[in-house]
Amino acid sequence: MSQTSALDLEKKLLEKQEKLDREKEILDKKQEEYREKLEDISGLTREEAKKILLEEVEKKEAQIVARIIREKEEEAKRTADTKVKEILADSMRHGATDFVAEYTVSVIPVESEEMKGRIIGKEGRNIRAFETATGVDVMLDEEGIIRLSSFDQVRREIARRSLEKLLKDTRIQPFRIEEIVNQTKEEVDKIMLEEGQKLAQEAGVFNIPVELLKTLGRFKFRTSYGQNLILHSLEVTKIAVSIAGEIGADVNVVRLGALFHDIGKVVEGEGSHVKLGVELLKKFSIPDKVIDCVAQHHEDIPFSSVESIIVHVADSISGARPGARFEDIENYGKRLKEMEDMAKKHEGVADAYAFEAGRELRVIVMPEKIDDAQCTILAQTLREDISRSLAIPGEVKVTVIREFRAVSGESITT
After folding, report:
1. How far apart are CA 405 and CA 408, in angstroms?
2. 129: containing domain
3. pLDDT for 300-329, tens place per residue?
4. Residue 124 lies in a domain
C-alpha cells in the first residue's frame, strides 16, 4: 500500500470518529432531556427514584430470604430428631469397646490345704505380714481358694501378683513376703506407666506429663459399678470426639476433657472424684476449658461451654448403655440406709444423711449431749466403721454438724 493511500484511509477514519462523537453528544443531550422530563412528571429527583427502586428490590429480596429461612427451619424441625439419633448412634458405634466386668475381689486357686496352711503361717504370722505389706484383706474361708479383698484395685493387683509368686517360690516367711511385695510394687508402677501411655495414644492425646500418665495407668485396676475405668474413659473419649466433630465443637478440648473426666477416682484424698480430679489437673496447668469439662461432667456446677455438655452426654451414654455397669438398685439404697443407721446408733445423734453415692455422710447431733471434741471423735469413728463394714468404693467423708441456739424473749402482738 502506498503512502498516499494510507493517509487517505487515516483521514476517513478520523472523519468517522468525529461523526460518532457528534452523534454521541446529541444522544447524551436527548437522554438528559428525557431524564428531566421524567423527573418533572414523577416529582422525584434521580437520587430519590434510585433510592425507591433499591428499597423495592431489597423488600422483594427480603421476602425471598425470609421464605428460604422458614423453609430451612421447618426442614430442621422435621429432621432434627432423626439427625440427633444418627449422631448419637454413630458415636456409640465408634465408642464401642470390648468389655469385661471387674469387681473388688481377686480369687487365687491353691493346690492344697497344706499350701494354704503355709500361707497362714505359725499362729497366723505370715498372713498378718502379707495383709500389712499389701493393705488388703485375705479371706481363707473356702476350700481350694484364697480371696483378696480391697476397693483399691492397685493394692489388690499387687497382692494377687505377690501371692502367686509366693506360691511358686514356697519360701513363705515374713521377710520374704515383704521383699516380694516391694518387687511387685515396682513392676506394677511400670505397668501403670505403660497402660497410661497406651490409653493416651489410643485416645489420640500426646505430650502428657509422666505423673499424669501414671495416674491414667491406675485406670487399669479401677472399676466403677463393675465398669473398668480404662475402657470407660476410652469409650467416652471416642463418643465425645465423634459428637464434637459432628456439631463443630472444639475437638481437642473435648478429647482431653473426656480422657480426664474420671481421673479423680484414682486420686487419694477427701471429697468427690470431680473435686479431686480438678485439683490434680490444676497442678499440671491443664487448660481451663478442659478442667471445666471435668468439673461439670456431673452437673455439679452449670455448664460453661458446649464442650462440657458433650463430655457429660458421652459419659452418660457410656455408663447408661445396657451391660455397661452392674449396680443393683435395691442394694444401692440398702447400702445408703445402712450408713445412716450406723450413724444413728450412736448416742446423741439426731439424724444422718448419706449422699454422693455413699461417698459422704452428714450427721446432725444434739448439742446438749455431744460437745465439739466428741464430734471430732464421732466423725473419725464413723469413717472407720463404714470403711471396714460397708462396700463403699473410694474415700468416705463424714461431716458431723453440731449447732446450739439460745433464744430469749417472745414477740408481743398488739
Report:
1. 10
2. 105-196
3. 788 889 999 999 988 888 776 655 555 555
4. yes
Residue 85 lies in a domain: no
In this structure, the answer to whether residues 316 and 231 fall within a common structural domain is: yes
> At how many degrees (to 10) do helices 229-247 and 174-203 cross?
10
User: β-strand 397-402 against 360-365: which pairing, if any?
Assistant: parallel
Please state, in angstroms and rounded to a whole number, the distance separating the CA atoms of residues 255 and 253.
5
> Which three three-digit cell numbers place residue 76?
430442621
Q: How many CA atoms lie within 13 A of 247 on its CB side?
A: 18
Chain centroid to Cα 209, Å, comes to 19
Q: What total of structural domains would you count in the chain?
A: 3
Are 163 and 108 in contact, with CB atoms under 8 Å apart?
yes
* Selection from 374, 372, 351, 377 nearest residue 363 by Cα: 351
Q: Say which DSSP state 300 is in.
A: S
| 77 domain-assigned | no
Min mean pLDDT across 53-62, 151-160, 189-198, 298-307 is at: 53-62
pTM for this entry: 0.55
